[in-house]
Design a protein that fits this description.
The structure is a single chain. By secondary structure, the protein is an alpha+beta fold. 22% of the residues lie in helices and 35% in strands. The chain has one domain. Strands 1, 4, 5, 6 and 7 form a five-stranded mixed beta sheet that branches. Strands 2-3 form a two-stranded antiparallel sheet. The structure holds zinc ion. The site of zinc ion has 7 residues, from β2.
């Protein structure tokens, strides 16, 4: 099944789920603002780590995969945290909605 096979009702459900998840992510960012907002394509982000005397240190940005209640769609973004308190999280506008059947979780 591809996105082109979705019925109008499924497309509407996908749009509604994406909007709700974007709003949820925006609320998380508002409640707990990350040190930096990142694009979803980034897998690592370097920062000058306070715990390592300002040395450039990589933070792994892990995938967050949120399956819709119907199980058809998934909302994907990335976030990461360093022991020094530095945090990075995806911009809600750049997070993606995918078909769960086409794009499973990365599993790491
Ligand atoms: Zn750090």
């Amino acid at each position: 099944m591809t996105a082109a096979d979705l019925t109008p009702a499924e497309r509407a459900a996908a749009r509604a789920y994406r909007a709700a998840e974007k709003a949820r992510l925006a609320q998380i960012n508002a409640d707990s603002p990350p040190s930096v907002m990142v694009l979803p394509v980034l897998r690592n982000y370097r920062h000058e780590c306070a715990r390592r005397g300002g040395q450039s240190t990589s933070v792994l940005l892990k995938e967050v995969y949120r399956l819709s209640p119907c199980g058809r769609f998934a909302f994907i973004y990335r976030e990461g945290r360093c022991g020094c308190g530095f945090t990075a999280r995806c911009l809600p506008a750049r997070a993606r909605l995918v078909l769960a059947s086409e794009r499973p979780p990365l599993g790491r």
